[in-house]
Design a protein that fits this description.
With about 290 residues, the chain is an alpha/beta fold. It has a single domain, classed as 3-Layer(aba) Sandwich (Rossmann fold). The chain is built from ten helices and seven strands. The protein has a seven-stranded parallel sheet, with helices on both faces.
Length: about 290
């Protein structure tokens, strides 16, 4: 699948407005910088104002940081009201639901709190933000972008919780896309593979602490595959692609006359999306085990 081609930025009298969640670092920050550089007025959802200041310092164009925790519904309501006041009748031309977390571990022993936390942020937070901005999206004839993952259609072992949240986004994107079609509101799902973001340093730390809080039986049963997982996590950053590749797909989804419904980003995601369609499950399981060394 060819990478999406985006046209050069063009200036318009009225700025295009977009709200991006999870814009402190990584993919969200890359999207904020790229869209601001193309003339968008970016409302960048961050957890700390220091992150917002750092984002503005390294960017061209207009970035307006907003403190936004997608699990805080009152805060979401307040932020959307503020954004609506600044946008006025122009509304929002886009929302990029990027905020998310990934927690790894054997499903057999994963604390339910960790499982629930991923759904709270990756799914419920996304839905809450989307519902809150819909009046502004309608006013601005805007588009909705959801940040999925290749784990949403081909989930790796020890990422069942994360993959389940991203698989949920596949369903949400399909349903919402059809629901909003009568109003011409496009919905796009971005499906990145391995991306060079701070999540990998966090993943290495998480891998080292994988057994913390889990019973001794977990370490006894899963010691060998977890060791293989740690080795794989160490290798991934060298093979990962820059977050700007994802930002380019997001830009195409927001600006293209004919946006795609899905955007696999990265060779691993593109190949994976093809494999799940043509390779039997058992054979694909064997391939994944071989690749991961388990």
């Amino acid at each position: 699948m060819n990478a999406p081609q985006i046209m050069p930025a063009t200036s318009t009298a009225a700025p295009r407005n977009v709200l991006i969640t999870g814009a402190s670092t990584g993919i969200g920050a890359a999207c904020a910088r790229m869209l601001a550089g193309r003339g968008w007025r970016v409302f960048a959802g961050v957890r700390k104002m220091q992150d917002g200041e750092a984002l503005m310092a390294g960017s061209e164009g207009q970035i307006i940081p907003v403190i936004l925790d997608v699990t805080n519904r009152e805060q979401i309501k307040t932020v959307v009201q503020e954004v609506g006041t600044q946008c006025g009748t122009a509304g929002l031309q886009g929302v990029v639901n990027n905020a998310g977390i990934a927690l790894a571990g054997p499903l057999e022993f994963m604390p339910m709190e960790a499982f629930e936390r991923q759904f709270e942020i990756n799914v419920l937070g996304l839905v809450t933000v989307t519902q809150a901005v819909m009046p502004l999206i309608r006013a601005g004839h805007g588009r909705i972008v959801l940040m999925g993952s290749n784990s949403g259609f081909m989930c790796e072992p020890f990422l069942a919780g994360y993959g389940a949240t991203k698989h949920a986004l596949e369903a949400i994107a399909d349903s919402l896309r059809i629901e909003l079609r009568p109003w011409g509101i496009d919905v796009a799902l971005i499906e990145p593979g391995a991306i060079k973001t701070p999540i990998w340093s966090k993943s290495r730390e998480a891998a080292e602490q994988l057994f913390v809080g889990m019973p001794p039986e977990c370490e006894k049963l899963y010691a060998t595959p977890i060791t293989a997982l740690r080795k794989m996590v160490e290798k991934v950053p060298s093979m990962a692609i820059p977050p700007e590749r994802v930002a380019k797909a997001v830009t195409h989804a927001l600006e293209s006359r004919w946006p795609r419904t899905r955007y696999p980003v990265g060779l691993d995601s593109i190949v994976g999306s093809l494999l799940v369609k043509i390779v039997p499950d058992r054979l694909l399981d064997w391939v994944i085990r071989k690749v991961m060394g388990i």
